[in-house]
Structure prediction request, 248 residues.
Amino acid sequence: MTLEVHGLGISGLVRDVSFGIARGERVGLIGESGSGKSLTALSIMGLLPEELAASGSVKLDGRELLGAPEKELSRLRGNDLSMVFQEPMTALNPAMRVGAQVAEPMRIHRDGRNHRAAAESLLDSVGLPGTFRAYPHQLSGGQRQRVVLAIALANDPKLLICDEPTTALDVTVQAQILELILDGIRERESALLFITHDLAVVASVCERVLVMLDGEIVEAGTTREVLTAPKHEYTKKLLAASDLEASR
Ligand SMILES: Nc1ncnc2c1ncn2[C@@H]1O[C@H](COP(=O)(O)OP(=O)(O)OP(=O)(O)O)[C@@H](O)[C@H]1O
Prediction:
């Protein structure tokens, strides 16, 4: 297992959450707004707001992350662990050229590489050739999210977490970003934790899915099982309210 979460609790807001993600596996986390999806992700990254406390266990390749010193966590973030958030502009530095931002995680975590060439080839791989010297404001929302993805993939993470990565984007570019995420993790055999409220996206991206309600996981299974034969009442309601149901 790349990621093992056991009995995770977060200040009463998340309770007894357990799941694992194997190398190269794609797992979706769904549930309504406020159910605790983002807090679960942030606790894995060691980025919970200071007023919240996590208990239980979160292991990456056997190494305990909960309660690990900040120095150790900052060595993992942008390296073994990376995250793509909903809003690309807030994840980017507006005053820094795109190429330098893509090169940064490599400069911080890896030495002895031609970081500029590596950043240029990463930008190529997300469909943004020739943008090394651009600033974020010169790019569209979809292009910015491609930059964010290039940064997240720069050091070949063991685990990539995506929290609603396409929600802020035009429908036409959403599919392209999803494809790039899938290509990126396939090439690297990264594990993926994919948070979304969009069941159609889960169906196209994830092999397994976890359903969260009021801070707990109420259902888990293969995407096919959960989306075609949901057991929990809440999952049934989610499905009934989705386009997926309408299109069946
Ligand atoms: N810093 C905080 N202090 C207290 N409560 C918080 C804090 N951050 C989040 N919460 C609460 O924790 C609960 C879970 O929040 P979380 O952001 O994880 O939900 P979510 O499932 O990701 O929702 P969304 O889809 O809207 O992002 C919510 O009720 C939220 O109000």
